[in-house]
Amino acid sequence: MEPSAFDELAFFRALDDSAARALLIGRRALVLLGLPVLTAVYDFWIAIDDIEAFNGVGARFGLHPTRTPDEARRSGRYAVENDEHVDVLVARSVPTVDGEAVEFETLWDRRTVVQVDGSRVCLPCLDDLILTKRIGARPKDLEDIRLLRILRDAR
Amino acid sequence: MTREAIDRTLQRTVTSEELRHALHAPVARQEREEVLALVRWFTARYPAPEDRLAYVRQAYARWRTHMAHR
């Protein structure tokens, strides 16, 4: 099976050109940092005021939101999808499973920028990426935490 | 094991103890060296971030094809 026709570089370019403050989290962030891990989806954490701007970018790629902006603000999560699936976290603050509050604005202020084919892709810094892994805290997140620790300690 | 049971296992929330271990347990030298060797290979073979993303999309597609034919 070939990858779908989704043009991820054009998507990142459009996101960079938009006003949406969006942090790439999840395993694709690890890939950009040099860790070859498999993933099916894209994960973003976006500013709560930027849902419409983010959805506008998604719409240009045929990605449809699973919730209205108001519903997304209330639930804190939604997705935009077609044959691609983009999970979106949209809360101002989310607790980790061990009770630490993680705030979007703090992560945004400390973000790292990676140049991808001439576009800026924003990621949480390494310590904050580890923090985001404590939100979902599934078994694969623990694997990712160890990989990120090794990467961080080697830098 | 059924598909549902596998999904439950993969999607479960880990315990506090498991999380603490992942965050703080010492990483063995062999594990560290293996991971860093993998990073060296990946970033040397695909120095551009966009090529790393493309590699993962292709690798995932290959994995899906393999799983579909099992």
- Total of helices of chain A: 7
CATH class of chain A: Alpha Beta
Number of distinct beta strands of chain A: 9
Task: Using the 3D structure, state the CATH architecture of chain A.
Answer: 2-Layer Sandwich
Count of DSSP strands of chain B? 0
The overall number of domains of chain B is 1
Structure description:
The complex is a heterodimer of chains A (155) and B (70). In chain A, 43% of the residues lie in helices and 24% in strands. Chain A has helices at residues 8-17, 27-33, 51-60, 69-75, 104-109, 126-136, 139-154; strands at residues 22-25, 42-46, 64-65, 77-81, 85-89, 93-95, 101-103, 112-116, 119-123. In chain A, the strands form three sheets. Chain A has a five-stranded mixed β-sheet. In chain A, strand 4 (77-81) and strand 5 (85-89) form a beta hairpin. The longest helix of chain A is centred in the last third of the chain and has 16 residues, at 139-154. Chain A is globular. Chain B is mostly helical and 70 residues long. In chain B, 79% of the residues lie in helices and 0% in strands. Chain B is built from four helices and no strands. Chain B has helices at residues 3-11, 16-24, 29-45, 49-68. Chain B is flat, with a radius of gyration of 17 Å. Chain B starts with a helix and ends with a helix. At the A-B interface, helix 2, strand 8, helix 6 and helix 7 of A face helix 1, helix 2, helix 3 and helix 4 of B.
